[in-house]
Amino acid sequence: MDFENSVFINCPFDDSYINDLLKPALFFLIKNGLYPRLSLEVSDSGQVRLEKITEIIKNCKYSIHDLSLVKSKKENEYARMNMPFELGIDYGLRNSSIPQFKDKQFLILEAIKYDYQKALSDINGFDIKVHSNNSEKMYDCLYSWASETLKIKKQDPPLKTFYDFTDFNTSLFEEKLLEFGKETLAKNYITKISIPEYMEEIRERL
User: Fold this and answer.
1) Can you tell me the distance from the alpha carbon of 98 to that of 59, in angstroms, rounded to the nearest whole number?
2) Secondary-structure breakdown of the chain: helix, strand, coil percentages, each rounded to the nearest 5
3) What's the structural domain count of the chain?
4) Exposure winner among 41, 123, 187, 203, fewest CB in 10 A?
5) Whole domain around residue 146: which residue ranges?
6) Which CATH number is 101's domain given?
7) For residues 82-97, b (16+ Cβ closer than 10 Å) or e, as one string?
8) What is the pLDDT of residues 115-150, one digit of tens each?
């Protein structure tokens, strides 16, 4: 896989996050000729998870780190530490003396502006973008990052990409309904589809 076009995505894997934020991000990246990489892409029980994640990070010039769930939501619930930890790995590689990693660049996301400062004040001063747990605003964040950092020219406006994403999901459901012949089977496919399969469905249609 091409280091120059690969993007590591470090995010929660809750169903709501996957549907509202991760899938829109995958659509945006693939639409713009980039190759998303995630820990979900391989299920190898013989490989230590941290080793797998570190290897993916090493093979990606770009990364997206979402810190929106580093705060616990209720009493006695633990905060999520995986996302800031993986950001730390990426930051360490970027600032190492290894020539290949000196040009690594990343996007840091949060749901509520300045929330990260309460949990990870060391990154104060970074350009953090806010998606408010909203698909349309996620496209605003990605559009700005792609323009400012990735230098992608003549992108579709974020709202157009959001509409394209909605149309893609509608057409995917309709195709599966036609293929399987039952709405319950089509819905089951959409609900249970793995992330690698979902990315392949996007590639086939773009």
Assistant:
1) 13
2) 55, 10, 35
3) 1
4) 203
5) 3-153
6) 3.40.50.450
7) bbbebbebbbebbeee
8) 766 667 667 767 889 999 999 999 999 999 999 999
